[in-house]
Amino acid sequence: MGEKKGGKLKKFFLFAFFASLAAGVAAFFKRRRAGGEENEWQELPPPQG
Question: What percent of the chain has pLDDT over 70?
């Protein structure tokens, strides 16, 4: 209502910051709980030749 455009932008960036922070923390704990099993498929075999 009486807010300036900058106030909305600041709120948006604040929301985006906290959302990304929460997602990062969730991903960290999810990965930790998996115990490394999730990363096995990423290990590539040695190149042939």
Answer: 67
What are the backbone dihedrals phi and psi of residue 4, each rounded to the nearest 5 degrees, phi first?
A: -85, 165
pLDDT over 60 at 37, yes or no? no
- The CA-atom distances, in angstroms, between 19 and each of 12, 24, 32 are 10, 9, 20
pTM for this model (two decimals): 0.51
As given in the structure block, the two tokens for residue 17 are 């910051």
CA 15 to chain centre: 14
C-beta separation of 31 from 38 below 8 A: yes
